[in-house]
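User: Sequence in, structure out. Go.
Assistant: Echoing your sequence, followed by the structure tokens.
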Amino acid sequence: MQTSNFNLQPPILEDDIVKLIPLEENHFEELFEVASDPLIWEQHPSKDRSNREGFRTFFDAGLQSKGAFLILDKQTNEIIGTTRYYDNKQENSSIAIGYTFLARKFWGGPYNKSCKKLLIDYAFQHVNSVLFHVGAENFRTQKAVLKLGAEKARDMILTTNGVDMPYFEYELKKKE
């Protein structure tokens, strides 16, 4: 596996449902408008992302990651949310997908699955394992990750803004 050529932010990933484009600074205002709904974050360990300061921290980390995408509705070009690649470990041939949120009007439809399928299919061209780190109380995302075929691999503690929080790691292995 050659993970060294893995471009964490290809110019575009798309299907008939969503279009993923690299996140840029000029996306902040429109994306914050979507993220400012506190119900998006109610099960998430970092609930402050619905306010401007909390979202700015989240957004800037996405830009710095050089693996973040703006998610657009392919038919209307409406902003749905964001997602990103992170934690690329060449020695394990793995990468994580996360930091995903969708506007509530897009919950329960084909959007999250479509977005994740694009990211997973692209990742499996370069790695053997895709990981998802989900807050222990984020039941909605846990169900979504299981629907993708991932399996719970371990319990873990992640530190966010100096606070230790319980998470679960799910793994999806490349089918040979």
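User: And one key feature?
Assistant: DSSP finds four helices and eight strands in the chain.
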